[in-house]
Amino acid sequence: MEHNRFFPPHAGVRLGDLAARLGAELVDAAHADRIVRSVSPVARAKDGDICYILSRKMRAELETSEATAILCDRALASLVPASIAVLISPRAHTAFALAGELLHPSAMRPEAMTSASGGVAPGAYVDPAARLEPDVTVEPMAVIGKDAEIGEGSHIGPGAIIGAGVRIGRNCTIAAGVTVQCALIGNNVIIHPGARIGQDGFGYAPGLKPGMIKIVQIGRVIIQDHVEIGANTTIDRGTMDDTVIGEGTKIDNLVQIGHNVRIGRHCGIVSKVGIAGSTRIGDGVMIGGASAINGHISIGDGVMIAAMSGVVADIPPGEKYGGIPARPMRDFLRDVAEVAMRASAREKKKGGKDE
Where is the UDP-3-O-[3-hydroxymyristoyl] glucosamine N-acyltransferase non-repeat region domain (predicted)? Predict the structure, then answer.
């Protein structure tokens, strides 16, 4: 693949060493000294690139590939041209992700926007009552509030605002323009540019006259270890309880999470999802893009929700739901098929009348 200035190729890793790091099997030991420097799509790969394939549908892409190596399942190895080294892995996608992390570590989290490296940059403000452990970087125009605590190895990007009393763990990245208030954040957390964490939630009571009265929001946001939060995502603090994001959960860009929501461990939430207040989401839940989740409901462990679904009621553990309103996937697909059949029948009937 043609490389750009933002993510230059690695200095080089021996294929034999890479296979060992990935737990993959190098089919031909004679290829062990080949050097890989980057990752690439199969069809555009050049010498020094490593790619992966997951199905026979990618056979045509292999015809134009000049990759150094391909990761794949053993059943697909025969598709790879003889000129390309083969690494066998039962989880080729996972192995490819690990290879990418090794070859392009700088792309794994937002990097510094300025040349600041360690310490507090000129132009940043750190309140005298804030406490920073060693090796914390604070870039220009960032503000660290009173009694805030930031752990060793963490990085605060330019223009980020860390509110009074906020605690941020070790090896965290808080990117440019992020606002964090009323929050406790664990270790190894990544928050991408423009995210808003800990602002008050949307809560109002009917007024005595026409209009609404604001309900006080005095809870917190608790973000556990190894969470990643996408750009311009918003997470409201709790009303009187806490909003909680469980360990290892990954949240895409432009997601809205309301007050008192509790999300379990290792969930995946895709762009433009909206989760209303006081919803409980179990561990390992996957929510497709642009889905809307009603408030005060429970979604069980391991649930999968299709993109653009509207979830209005509880979902038992392990289920797959889709549609508006969301229902078991088999029912949703049957309804979609029935609508398509009726539309086709109407078109045929209309065509017969025209004749």
Answer: 33-101
Q: CA torsion, points 92, 94, 95, 99, in degrees to nearest 10?
A: 130
Q: Per the structure block, which two tokens stand in for 40?
A: 């690439």
Query: Which pLDDT does position 349 carry in this prediction?
Result: 78
Say what the pLDDT of residue 117 is.
65
* Element spanning 193, H or E: none
Q: What angle do CA 186, 187, 192 make, to 5 degrees?
A: 85
How far apart are the C-alpha atoms of 90 and 49, rounded to whole Å? 20
Contact assessment for residue 74 and residue 92, using Cβ atoms and an 8 Å cutoff? no
Rounded to whole angstroms, how far apart are CA atoms 275 and 265?
A: 16
Q: Any catalytic annotation for residue 226?
A: no
Q: How far apart are CA 355 and CA 351, in angstroms?
A: 7
Pairing of strands 35-36, 13-14: antiparallel
pLDDT below 70 — which residues of the chain? 1-3, 116-117, 352-355
Quick one: which of 154, 147, 252, 243 has its CA closest to 198?
243
DSSP β-bridge partners for residue 305: 287, 321
Q: Is 286 exposed, middle or buried (0-12, 13-18, 19+ CB in 10 A)?
A: middle
**Rounded Cα–Cα distance for residues 23 and 311 (Å):** 40
Task: Report yes or no: 225 and 189 within 8 Å, Cβ to Cβ.
Answer: yes
Q: Is the pTM of this model over 0.85?
A: yes
Residue 209: per-residue pLDDT: 83
The domain 13-107 is classified under which CATH number: 3.10.129.10, 3.40.1390.10, 3.40.630.30, 1.10.390.10?
A: 3.40.1390.10
pLDDT of residue 2: 66
Residue 125's identity, in one-letter code, is Y
User: In whole angstroms, what separates CA 174 from the centre of its chain?
Assistant: 15
Which contacts of 287-290 are long-range, i.e. CB under 8 A and separated by 24 or more positions? 289/252
